[in-house]
Structure formats: structure tokens, C-alpha cells
Amino acid sequence: MDLTKNRKNFIILAGALSLFLFLGTTVALAGGQNCPLPGQGLVPCGTPGCPCELCDLFKMITNIVNYIVLGIVPLIAVLFVAYGGFQYITAAGDPSKTKGAKDVFTAVVIGLVIIYSSWLVVGFALNMIGVADWTGLKTWYQIDCP
User: Fold this and answer.
1) In this model, does residue 113 exceed pLDDT 90?
2) Which of 4, 13, 39, 145 could form a disulfide with 55 if both were Cys (CB 3.0 to 4.6 A apart)?
3) Domain that holds residue 45
């Protein structure tokens, strides 16, 4: 019973920490008095003197995906590796608990491989069909609004 309660508490704490970090960073990134410079801000428009256009919607989606893939995914992976390490240390030689900890490590590695290899597969497929040539973009994952 105690182990289940500790697991629930850990998941709640990890979720609250992730939400806090996500919202805090999002609020800090969104905004500015004029048009933000490229790479600054989650929403690249909407301030006085900087109206939003259709291209800005795609730029915002790109910023959100980059934030999740490069910011949140590694943080969650580190939290789960720490959780798996804690399980492994506290297993005290119990084979079922040790197996559970190893399963957490395996799930983290598989999850990271799936997430980052999907990025590579999409990039490879879009480069093969020449999306950069007919859209005028340098790369498929980089959108530059005028």
C-alpha cells in the first residue's frame, strides 16, 4: 500500500512540477512591446505594431512543437530516469521491484527513440519530396515569416 501511495504522490508531484515549468516559461516567452526577434517568444505576433498573419500561426505551432520536443520531453525523461533509479535503489534485491525499475528505464529509452526518430523520419520524407523547394523554406522545420 505504501509503495502505491508513494508512486501516486510522485506522479502528482512530477505533473505539478512539469505544469509549473511549462506555464512559467510560456508566460515568460509570450509577449514584448514590438515584434519579437526570431527565436524569442512562443507567439511571434499580437503586440501593438505587430499584427498577426497566417504565417504567424504556423510559426506558433512550430514554436510549440519545438518547446515540447526540446524542453518538456527531456525534462520528463530525466524525471522518469530518476524515478527508475529510486525504484532500483530501494528494491533491496527484490527481483520484481528490480524488474519494475528496469522496465521504467526501458520505457524511457523506447519513448525517446520513438519521439526523436519520428522527427527524423518526417524530416527525411519531406526532404525527399522536396518541400523546401516548392515552399521556399530553407528547411521543413524552420518557418520565417516576412
Assistant:
1) yes
2) 145
3) 2-135
